[in-house]
Amino acid sequence: MSESALQILSRVFGYERFRGEQAEIIGHLVSGGDALVLMPTGGGKSLCYQIPALMRSGVGVVVSPLIALMQDQVDALRQLGVRAAFLNSSLTQGQARGVERAMLDADLDLVYVAPERLLTERFLALLERIEIALFAIDEAHCVSQWGHDFRPEYIQLGLLQERWPGVPRIALTATADTPTRNEILTRLRLDRARRFVSSFDRPNIRYRIVEKSNPRQQLLAFLKGEHSQDAGIVYCLSRRRVEETAAFLQGQGFTALPYHAGLPAETRRQHQARFLREEGLVMVATIAFGMGIDKPDVRFVAHLDLPKSLESYYQETGRAGRDGLPADAWMAYGLADVVMLRRIIDESEADERFKRVERHKLDGMLGYCETTECRRQVMLHYFGERLDAPCGNCDTCLDPVETWDGTLAARQALSCIYRTGQRFGSAYLVDVLLGKDLERIRRFGHDRISTFGIGRDLSADRWRSVYRQLVAAGLVEVDMEGHGALRLTERCRPLLRGETSIQLRRDPDRRKARVSGASR
Ligand code: ADP
Ligand code: ZN
């Protein structure tokens, strides 16, 4: 009698029970069905095709775009006694021939292959000659032209459906926004695939954002107040900031280590090993740190700089609280972050289409930062999921944001941009609104325009908050040609013409916030 999925789970992988929908997915594939699996990173996607490949006769063909991960997966499988191999450009021709021979001899359960290799006529011809258990297409979002992992070869994978209509196919990804999902289904011709969508919610993570004023001190207050003994990760955008922040935390008595791609490989390896092994260590890192880090008791992830998309933010904060115990995702953010990220996008070598996508993703991130609603609802909505009630475990739920009628203020802020020629950043604009007596303002003659001093009844913090929200709402854009100057967009017209009104969030005033213990 053949072994059941559960028996294989236990005998081969050493686990007692399936997680989430793994059992259903495996059952569906074993009986010949196609599947689209959306599951967050770390959710357990691999078993969804590995076990069916062991249960069906023939070899399971896994398409994977990442050479390094392929190798890791195959090593891990071999240690478990599974007959697995990979085919990619890192192999010598002799090694590749050996794998092909094993396939022909039906000596393999799983073969991992890079998409460009799979699509060669030579490899397709080889596949015609053997029995195939299933096709698994990992990182299936690479088929999406709108994502930043777009791989042109993925588009051609639709041919698997034509050439092997009887072989079950499973596409897997952790990127689940609705457009990407639909693109996967169409391009890979998975019309009849059953969809398995896991929740992306991480209910034990508490999401919080503070307005960036003095990021280091804010971080310090957060760590001292809530995580003085805990392991955690602090993400910064630049290598220099990583070094400085790590040194600063060390000076404050924390065991903190830097991690970024500019450090020697050996140093990085050591720091990573210490983070995994020791308790209460703070890793200050760029996004170079984290891939494949499986440390269950990371109690916080702090961001000193804005991530470039909600996908990145979700991935990075998702490293907290893997053990299911309460964990914090904390971020300090300000308009300067937006200017910086826009500059990085605009100055990159990428083509215009790609830059448009990146800007769009950044807008999604801003929307999350400036929301007055439950952050978890905004985030899950972005991933195509719905959370019916506010979560009760994010800052906007715990400390509901007050809103105010910002129509007049927004109009004044917009008109200040216009009257100063759309050539200045928010710091200068705020000075003009407050009617500051500054040489620079006089030199430009901006002490004589109608918006000079028009905003004295609001604080500088409040005005900065107005500008941030106008950028997040797309009424104002950051002009990189103009070195971060703010510029009006078409979308601000109705407001300027008095046809619409706008509600703004009332960010806590910085001075008051500090007095009341960072507003918590
Ligand atoms: P993903 O590909 O979705 O990021 P993986 O397949 O790499 O996730 O699985 C993440 C981790 O969870 C791995 O260490 C894996 O062995 C473990 N895992 C997966 N399924 C189970 C299960 N049913 N029980 C226990 N651990 C599991
Ligand atoms: Zn909430």
UniProtKB/TrEMBL annotation:
Domain Helicase C-terminal: 215-365
Domain Helicase ATP-binding: 26-194
GO-annotated biological processes: DNA recombination; DNA repair; DNA replication; SOS response
Enzyme class (EC, first level): isomerase
Cofactor(s) the protein requires to work: Zn(2+); Mg(2+)
Residue ranges, annotated region (Disordered): 507-520
Keyword tags: ATP-binding, DNA damage, DNA recombination, DNA repair, DNA-binding, Helicase, Hydrolase, Isomerase, Metal-binding, Nucleotide-binding, Zinc
GO molecular function: 3'-5' DNA helicase activity; ATP binding; DNA binding; four-way junction helicase activity; hydrolase activity; metal ion binding
GO CC list: bacterial nucleoid; cytoplasm; replisome
Protein name listed in UniProt: DNA helicase RecQ
Residue numbers of the full-length protein present here: 1 to 520 of 616
